[in-house]
From TrEMBL:
The keyword Signal applies. It comes from Actinacidiphila alni. PROSITE patterns: PROKAR_LIPOPROTEIN. This is Lipoprotein. Residues 35-57 have a biased composition (Low complexity).
Amino acid sequence: MTRSSLPIAVALAAAAGLLLTACGGGGSDSSDKIQPSQTATTSAAPVTTTPSPTQAAGPGAPKFDLPSDIKVDFKGFDDSDPTKKAALQDATYAAQSVLELEAKAHSKVTPNFSRFWTGGTGAAFADSLMSQITGKGGITGTYHYYNPVVKTLTDSGNLSVVYCEDQRKAYSKDSATGKVKTTTPSPSDFRQWNLQMTKSASGEWHVFDHKWLKGAKQCQVA
């Protein structure tokens, strides 16, 4: 896929977004889950997907085509404020759309990804993901998201949704053979995401920019 020239901010976001889940590297550290000193190859073990209450489908909610060996867990993605509640819900959809793209090793952007990741940043992010999963890349395991915080961005009406991700039980997988590369849990398995979101004409919150930090100390849990 080719794209038109992107502004500097978008280019930086694209560079930061190189395969954010268990498939491969990204961020300032070139190592990632598939490169620790202790690795083993095993067959994929089915994991039951258990949606959290915040993933309850409402009218017009997206449906994600995730394999049965992927479990997605969201904790705390709810709020008494209706605006924050809606943004948190759509942030969970944005996260799942990334997993869907990676899990299926898609060669083109999925409708769900295009729906929640918009503009030049979204296009660059999609290209960076697909460039690494073309062929036989894939993911498996458990993806745990927690500690979300919603803040208003200046006077624009836009919001930032910052949350943590735990990938200690998430792994890369050869989608052609089903072989899984298990890895030893490490601090690099913790990520902090910062999604900058804007409200669309349809009332949904879409990601127009993002940052992420690998090995985030503020996200590390026992």
